Amino acid sequence: MNTSPGPNGWKTIFLLEELSLNYEFKSFHFDDIKKPPFIDINPNGRIPAIEDPRTGLTLWESGAIIVEQYDTDNRLKFDDMIHRNLCNQLLHFHMSGQGPYFGQCGWFQHLHAKKIQSAIDIYANEIKRVLGVLEIVLSKKGDDEQWLVGNKMTYADMAFVPWNFRLSEVLMQSWDEVFEGTPRVREWHEKLVELPSWKRALEHRVRLMDEQRLQWNGVPKGIETFADYEEKIEKGEMKYD
């Protein structure tokens, strides 16, 4: 279950597509994220959440939804202790570093009711710092090891894609400016976004955004700001065909 605009839910779709798993996609409006039936599945009221009818497992928190039980050939994970822990280390760095800082920068840049340049600068600098950390990790790899861990793409690499994919919009910079000083990160990112599985995930997103009449930032068409959107939700004024 997912809302279409935000990046976190697309990590899960990316994984499902890359592993060629069958799944049913349930997308709903942001208005309903704090209401039943979704709040009954995820009491935190955040997307995504996944229900697995084969195992009876329900999970929320995108970093936890790595569907490793279905990666039986270890295409996106490792079995050995060292590489498994390194993957989890990078996944936690994504969850604690990339997601929160990139999200806050996007909020203050595009959605906050007032422009607070100091807040934008703080989080924009954090984005550059996170990209710098990834540059160090990738720069320590050999020429034949172009991924974050070992010599193959894993769920650790894939987790970074949905947020990095939006950096030009978030920072309001060209891609040359976004990746200035981090050439290995750019090369790594550009390989990931060329994957057919990522392109299929994006096709789903574009279709749903259009069906739900949403602007790129998740605000419905015809509404100027996120604050106006929240006010309409609070008053029960959001109506959909």
Please tag this protein with its features.
2 strands, Glutathione S-transferase Yfyf (Class Pi), Chain A, domain 2, transferase, Glutathione-S-Trfase_C_sf, mainly alpha, glutathione transferase activity, Glutathione_S-Trfase, EC 2.5.1.18
Q: What do these coordinates show?
A:
With 241 residues, the chain is mainly alpha-helical. Strands 1-2 form a two-stranded antiparallel ribbon. The longest helix has 31 residues, at 81-111. 51% of the residues lie in helices and 3% in strands. The chain has helices at residues 8-18, 38-41, 81-111, 117-139, 155-159, 161-164, 167-171, 175-178, 183-193, 196-211, 226-235; strands at residues 49-52, 57-60. It has 2 domains: 8-72 and 208-235, Glutaredoxin; 81-194, Glutathione S-transferase Yfyf (Class Pi), Chain A, domain 2. A hairpin with a 4-residue loop joins strand 1 (49-52) and strand 2 (57-60).
**What is the CATH class designation of the largest domain?**
Mainly Alpha
The CATH topology of the largest domain is Glutathione S-transferase Yfyf (Class Pi), Chain A, domain 2
Kindly state the number of beta strands. 2
Proportion of strand residues: under 5%
Q: Over all CA atoms, what is the radius of gyration? A: 18 Å
Q: Could you name the ranges where pLDDT drops below 50 across 5 or more consecutive residues? A: none
Helix/strand/pairing class, anyone?
A: mainly alpha
Main β sheet profile: 2 strands, antiparallel
Order of helices and strands: HHEEHHHHHHHHH
SS field, number of helical segments: 11
How many domains?
2
> Can you name the CATH architecture of the largest domain?
Up-down Bundle
Coarse shape? globular
